[in-house]
Specification:
The complex is a heterodimer. In chain A, helix 2 packs across helix 11, helix 7 crosses helix 8 and helix 7 crosses helix 10. The longest helix of chain A has 25 residues. In chain A, strand 1 and strand 2 form a beta hairpin. By secondary structure, chain A is mainly α. In chain A, strands 1-2 form a two-stranded antiparallel ribbon. Chain A contains eleven helices and two strands; from the N terminus they run H-E-E-H-H-H-H-H-H-H-H-H-H. Chain B is an all-alpha fold. Chain B folds into two domains: 60 residues; 440 residues, Cytochrome c oxidase-like, subunit I domain (Cytochrome C Oxidase, Chain A, Up-down Bundle), CATH 1.20.210. Chain B is 71% helix and 1% strand. A two-stranded antiparallel ribbon of chain B has the order 1-2. The chains are: A mainly alpha, B mainly alpha.
Chain lengths: 297, 548
Amino acid sequence: MSAHDGEAPDVDPVTGYETTGHDWNGIKELNTPFPIFVITILGLTVVYSIIAWLLLPAWPTGRDYTRGLLGLDQGEMAVAGYQRLADGREDWMARFVAGDFDAIVADQALMAKAMPAAHRLFLDNCAACHGTDATGGPGFPDLADSDWLWGGDPATIAETLRVGINSPHPETRFAQMPAFGHDQMLERAEIETLTSYVQALSTGQADPDGEGGTLFADNCASCHGDGGVGGLGIGAPSLVDGHWIYGGDRATIFATLQRGRQGVMPTWADRLSEAEINLLAVYVSGLAAEHEALASR
Amino acid sequence: MIRSLSSSERQLGIALSVALALLGLVMLGAAKVGPMAVHGAMAIAVGVALLFALGGGLAEPEPRGDRLARYYDEPTRFGIVMTMIWAVFAMAVGVWVAALLYWPEATPLWPWTSFGRLRPVHTSGIIFGFGGNALIATSFHVVQRTSRARLADSVTPWVVLIGFNLFCLWAVSGYLMGSTQSKEYAEAEWYADLWLVVVWVVYFVLYMRTLARRNEPHIYVANWYYLAFILVVAMLHIVNNLALPVSLAGAKSFTIWAGVQDAMVQWWYGHNAVAFFLTAGFLAMLYYFLPVRSGRPIWSYRLSILSFWGIVFFYVWVGSHHLHYTALPYWVQTLGMTFSVMLLVPSWAAAGNAIATLNGAWHKVRDDATLRFMFVAAVFYGLSTFEGSFLAIRPVNSLSHYTDWTVGHVHSGTLGWVAMIIFGAIYTLAPQLSGRETMAWPRAIEWHFWLAVTGTLVYVVALWNAGITQGLMWRTYDASGALSYSFLQSVMAMAPYYLLRTIGGALFLAGAVICALNTWATMRSARAGAEAHDRPLLPGPALPEPAE
């Protein structure tokens, strides 16, 4: 208990300070005076705060608040910041608004500036489905090869980006692989035959005069082209090039014929500006050329 | 537990167990399916188990007649056991989710095991299960010793501990079932929140009644902090969790707050959970166990006062620094920033006071790993409060916000400060409550200490690097005015840091496992009926009058 009232003050031998006289089950406290520098720093932080309150919006005053001497508004500051960045890109981004693709691709200085930015834009918006190297994956087409569903020139790619495929956009590109088995357009045996035929097509061993060839001509060629070469620009892929969107193994081809396919590409019109769409279109159309150049080396 | 209760207390316990089982039955009957029904079944299980235990113990002999002349330490012992169980469980979940960030393909295909459900299991399990049990257990010990009085009664401590752990169990199992309020650190649904309010009020009343029975003229500073912790957490919990259930027969509810007000209330809660759950209560632990273990007086009573009132007053203003550069009005952000900066001095005064208290005991810090835990805790408290004030400055925050720097900052506080002071307290308490001089394996404390310090440093340094790298990658523009990096590149750049943080966390977990085993061995080796040697002061005519 307390050691006040006439008893000798309890002095801590290590620090030389008196205790407060309290004792809680052996715990004591020293009556050390406030260190000056603690009070000083506390004062400095208060001064800092008062200066901040004077300069910046700070205290509520009922329906309003103190605006601060600097008159800052974070909404205006954010808009101005974005504008400043946009202005910095203005000199070369403006060229993409018009979308004169031949002139853009021919301008090497412009391309040197634009393509690194396009690459980042691709990674931020496209890579989640098409992969960081643009080679796609099951369900998502390879963009680095030279096979195109709708066409690989910049203008066509820009249109695909703008409206999407099977997307909610009113002008969307529309493509559907019918469910030949599920919707009873073909017998199971016929689907088996077609599966073998399509597999043979991709290895160049298909016999167009056999039963499979006849079935293919009757049911598939209108979209995939005679002999399955594709390239009609209506969303139906080439079946002879060895590149597969969903997979070229027997089970997957059978599943595609049985249940159909209706892949979706989102519309980017709401999310990217026209210039950004054109920038991406130039970038993506260049991927195939780049890929071929690499392959031939 | 049961042998320390008188037969009337056992009967009261039976009545409460039946009430709990009935509550569970009502929840199960009303909800029939879903998380609320499962939680009702859990309440029935706990109630029935307690009923059998107490019913079976009714015939046991009455406790010793002098029990009221002793401290009541069984609840503290139970709380320490729960602390270590939650520590190992929730830290293991933390290491697992850290590994998932490095190796996301390892996520099993069940919804229960998805990252989004496991992450709050880690945070709630650690903050409430590990931290909360440690706070309650030590507060029962500290309030008795510094008041030199026994707990006000023998039943309510069990209500608090069992009720609180039931809340933790409801919370964590609810997240696994996909039940969440989507409020960080307040994910538990409405009925669990109401239950916690009841438990918390019982805790507050018990604490106040015990303080009122004290045989010391003054209330020791540790009790100020414990009281601030209990009182303010109740206020935060109630306001932030105000919600309307979709139906009284289901778990889902919607918060009554909307839009940016909701965000502000959430971060007022969120930051003060850090302030009053993870700071005030643990400062109480520091203010008690550090002087006890070092045998030194608190360096400055005046600094204690300055820190306490500074921390209590400034902290409640600073939550808005979590919402810099958002739809929250600028003026609220300015207030949050400036109060965060002013908070630095009281925080450092507390840390400095603790470190200066060790003057004259440095040889003990060198030789005694338990005291070293407390010293490191005080150092990390100082470091993370400096970092916190720094990150709250708006322009600094524009770099650090949304990055892993924040996660690193939180872990420098939780691993370096909160967990370290808990371990220091447990290594002090466990032998004392088992009637022993030392832990069962004194050398294992040294191992634990170095694992914990290494783990913390690896974790925190990795995430500092990670956060600053992210922040810079997100804001760097090249000469053409376009962003220099895609978001994806900033994710891929995290791989080495996420691996390191997993390793750091695993080291820390290994230390905690050693602590749990050591505590188990210590408590198991206790003599039957072992108890602490110290005794409360008994009120009586022989006592001198209080001096003031």
